[in-house]
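Troubleshooting: if your tokenizer reports a length mismatch, compare your output against this known-good record of 153 residues.
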Amino acid sequence: MQKRLMIFLCLSFVVFFSTNVQAQRSEKKAVEQVLKAYKDGIEKLSTEGLSDLFTKDSEVFESGGVEGNFTHYLEHHLGPELGHFKSFDFSDHKIETKIDLPYAFTTETYIYTIVLAEGDRTIQRKGVATSVLKKIDGNWKIMKTHTSARNAK
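Known-good structure output:
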């Protein structure tokens, strides 16, 4: 009887553990899809739908500056800035994600290349972003994000 109980407990643990690992992978993928959607919008030089990726009380920090919530950042910084670009491309994009429900913590590294609309000048930078996301009503939203960049080597 003890042997059967032990086998049952071991099998229960294995099932629980594998289900938990699968759930973690699913959450990680969902978080990374939000970050990818944000980068995709920027690459398209479009702000359409980007606000949906952020909480209303989000906080945006860029290269040591406090930009306010995403709506403010979009209206006073990102939106107007995208109008001056011919193209904006991310490459070598890597994401590290840690899930601690209902929060996710991410670190992204990438290289971005901007071609300005006027004069075809190219700017290339190595960037890093850290973000905190929260799962709200089944959807991941960016609460805080901080980006910085330096010359690519």
